[in-house]
Amino acid sequence: MKKILILSLLLIIVFSLSQAAVPGKITIWTSEAQVKALREFVKNFSNKYGIPVEVNEVSFSDIKPKFITSAPTGEGPDIIVGAHDWIGELVVNGLLLPIDFLPKNVLDQFTPVTLQAMSYGGKLYGIPYSMEAVALIYNKNLVPNPPTTYESLVRIAKNLTKGGIYGFLYDYNNFYFSFPFFSALGGYVFKETPNGLDPLDIGLANEGAIKGVEKLVNLFKEGILKQGVDYQTTTSLFSEGKLGMMINGPWEIDNIKKAKINYGVAKLPKIDGKPMRPFVGVQGFMINSRSPNIAILKTFALEVLATKELELKLFETDPRILARKDAYRVVSSNPDIKAFGASAADGIPMPNIPEMGPVWSYMGDALTLITSGKKAPDVALKEAVAQIKDAILKARK
């Protein structure tokens, strides 16, 4: 038994070291979707410089926690592929290399919102390759022409809502999906400053946020939104052909196609002439600041990670809205990519600082109180902001 235990421990150590950064070899951790394309694409770099590049598949949910525990001891990879909202925690722990070595003409090729998302404290810490945001998904058999204004959304949805058909629904108590109502008229989570986000300047109960949420409440008054609706309810009704429009993201498209719904994707309608600005999520490449291969990694970043060609290769096996403008133009003939891309271009990066944690729960609670009619928007939002600030200050002590 003792021998088996020792052998097991040795195997674990060998496996860990095989995935770790070592001098003269580049190791990348990525999830299943990107593995095949990356392995094929990096061969030219390996042949050119004689540097082996190893691409290891790691479950997406495991990449960040494993990196946090392994990188400080020198056992982490050189590069990880992950979400922009990991950056705050990783930078605070001193684990990411600032991307201050890419020339301006390369950075200018990226959609600005993607660079903003991959930045922390005014510095860039990742090379973006894809982005995503919600948009208005509609059933073309019920809604031939999607609304472009809040007023037309109300009109179309009211006319449809009868006889077991619903005009417009979405997971309204989820702050992620409701944020566009906050942002349209000037609400924001944390104030953007030249040095990054200010976590104590919260704009979720300012005049614009309150007015936007009042527009949301009005959808209940108009009989459009219904009590008890969540994500599952919304997607099920849409797949059954009983829902005209919903707010959702590109991750739901496969299910819609399987249900054989004649669908379309459009930007969210404007409120009082202002765009509804959804949260934008970005994925990209982050470099381990503790790597022994920093010099060659900078070359690898310029010649591989930041290129149009890599993004297009990744798109072949994992179609996403690409971060480089030139790569996006190549794939934007796909109407879904074009529509979700237009929505993301209007969007706001989901905050990547650790202080975002309490925002989700307190804003979810506030929305539940508001949509159930238990509290007015101004009261619930001001209380939630006070709770968020209190939680942030307590965490600093």
From TrEMBL:
Top-level division of the source organism's lineage: Bacteria
Matches recorded under SUPFAM superfamilies: Periplasmic binding protein-like II
NCBIfam families (alphabetical): PRK09474.1
Keyword Signal: yes
Gene Ontology molecular functions: carbohydrate transmembrane transporter activity; maltose binding
Signal peptide: 1-20
Family classification: Belongs to the bacterial solute-binding protein 1 family.
Gene from which this protein is expressed: malE
GO terms, biological process: maltodextrin transmembrane transport; maltose transport
Protein name (record): Maltose/maltodextrin ABC transporter substrate-binding protein MalE
GO CC aspect terms: ATP-binding cassette (ABC) transporter complex, substrate-binding subunit-containing
InterPro entries tied to this protein: Maltose/Cyclodextrin-bd, SBP
UniProtKB keywords: Signal, Sugar transport, Transport
PANTHER family: MALTOSE-BINDING PERIPLASMIC PROTEIN (PTHR30061), MALTOSE_MALTODEXTRIN-BINDING PERIPLASMIC PROTEIN (PTHR30061:SF50)
